[in-house]
């Protein structure tokens, strides 16, 4: 599995907003300009929505060479780590606000997979700074998790900058990912605040012009 460098700026298509009747075609349209593909896993408890499980990840492994980034929006991430490792995930992110998130992160790292820690909009950066050395990726949610197509929360920009400053001061190489309401305009704000991994769902899959992602990916190189 080939991963972007920690310093690279890259787009992460979120299949949550893709047309599930032709997922292979949807991924083939975007993979050339993407760092990896994200699967938003929802359990109907941690968030009021249900999405998909390990079987979808297993099927997508036959569709793309790109790493699969599994964003666990579930109450019990420990329950889902092994099934997604077995389905070939390359990155597994657990929410700070979920049960036993540290145990889930450790399980992911022990399996040699990249681990992420995610925080909801209301969780301050200071709550997770001490865990950053344990992970490869920090995900700052720029919407309340649960649904695609929401509006970007500009008041998250200070949090993104705070975490970027922490990484710089401590010379830590990590992905700083944003997720929620990312389009060609909001992406620039997040980029200028220090994010380098941009999860994009509805802004990407709602468009029927393949050149859109090519233009966006080029603009952040
Ligand atoms: C929310 C999801 C969405 C999705 C991206 O729980 O995590 O943020 O990935 O959706 P858009 O790009 O449509 O906001």
Describe the structure.
- The protein is of the alpha/beta class.
- It has one domain: TIM Barrel, CATH 3.20.20.70.
- The protein is built from eight helices and eight strands.
- The protein has helices at residues 23-30, 54-61, 77-86, 101-110, 157-169, 186-193, 202-205, 211-219; strands spanning 10-13, 37-42, 68-73, 91-95, 114-119, 137-141, 175-179, 197-200.
- An eight-stranded parallel β-sheet has the order 1-8-7-6-5-4-3-2.
- Helix 3 runs parallel beside helix 4.
- The protein is globular and about 40 Å long.
- The chain starts with 9 loop residues before the first strand and ends with a helix.
- The mean pLDDT is 97.
- The chain binds D-xylitol-5-phosphate.
- The site of D-xylitol-5-phosphate has 22 residues, from strand 3, strand 8 and helix 7.
- Sketch the topology as an H/E string, one letter per element: EHEHEHEHEEHEHEHH
List ligands, each type once: D-xylitol-5-phosphate
Number of helices: 8
CATH level 3 topology: TIM Barrel
Percentage of residues in DSSP E strands: 15-25%
Quick one: biggest sheet? Answer: 8 strands, parallel
Overall mean pLDDT: 97
CATH superfamily: Aldolase class I
User: What order do the strands of the largest sheet run in, or round the barrel if closed?
Assistant: 1-8-7-6-5-4-3-2
Number of individual domains = 1
């Amino acid at each position: 599995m080939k991963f972007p460098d920690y310093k690279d700026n890259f787009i992460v298509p979120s299949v949550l907003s893709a047309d599930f009747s032709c997922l292979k075609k949807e991924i083939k349209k975007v993979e050339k300009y993407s760092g990896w593909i994200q699967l938003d896993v929802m359990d109907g408890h941690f968030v009021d929505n249900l999405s998909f499980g390990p079987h979808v990840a297993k099927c997508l492994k036959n569709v793309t060479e790109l790493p699969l980034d599994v964003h666990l929006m579930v109450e019990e991430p420990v329950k889902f780590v092994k099934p997604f490792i077995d389905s070939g995930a390359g990155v597994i992110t657990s929410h700070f606000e979920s049960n036993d998130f540290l145990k889930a992160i450790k399980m992911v790292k022990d399996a040699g997979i990249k681990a992420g820690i995610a925080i909801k909009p209301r969780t301050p950066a200071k709550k997770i700074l001490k865990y950053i050395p344990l992970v490869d990726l920090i995900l700052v949610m720029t919407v309340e998790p649960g649904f695609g197509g929401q509006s970007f929360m500009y008041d998250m920009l200070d949090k993104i900058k705070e975490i970027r400053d922490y990484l710089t001061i401590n010379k830590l190489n990590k992905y700083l990912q944003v997720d929620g309401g990312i389009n060609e305009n909001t992406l620039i704000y997040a980029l200028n605040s220090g994010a380098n991994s941009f999860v994009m769902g509805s802004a990407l899959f709602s468009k029927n012009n393949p050149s859109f992602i090519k233009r966006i990916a080029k603009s952040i190189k």
